[in-house]
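QA checklist item 7 of 12: single-chain prediction sanity check.
[x] sequence parsed
[x] length recorded as 180
[x] structure emitted
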Amino acid sequence: MNVPHFKNILLGVIGLAICAQVYFGWLLGPLRGREEQARGVLADSEPKVAAMRRLQKTENDLEARAPETAQLQALRATVPEGEPLAWFPPRVLRVLRKEGVPRANIRLINTLSSTEHQGFRQLAWTIDIPQTSYTALGAAIAELENREPLLKIQTLSIAASPSDPEFERATLQVQTFITE
């Protein structure tokens, strides 16, 4: 080997050593430091996470064993005794008449046990209003939803009355919940 080759090889080895020093010392060193810092933060937070999981489990157990809340008792108090076929249509008709809807036909479609709310049954009703105006219908629906907290309107269809263009025909599909 001659001297120029030897110098080139020596300069290459020195350059490689400098590159290794820069890579390991200046680039990987701070990364390792941040990694250790993150491990420390995670180690500090593990007991807190475990404590929160225990607290959440305790809270869930308490909720499962807790008696009915005051709000649920108040909702149960709004449901009268007896069969809904006897008390629901008169209550709805009373609200509709008060808001200016003189006639309505109310039919029970079906009754199911509620999967969402334990201790309640779900009833589906159709309310057919043969003649009404938009304003009276809107006021009646608002009043009905305010008076009956366990009532949910599923669908509402409004069509123009062919015999009297001043009035509309409306059909509501409503769902109520009653205690079993």
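[x] summary fact logged: The chain has two domains: 1-66, 71-179.
[ ] second reviewer sign-off
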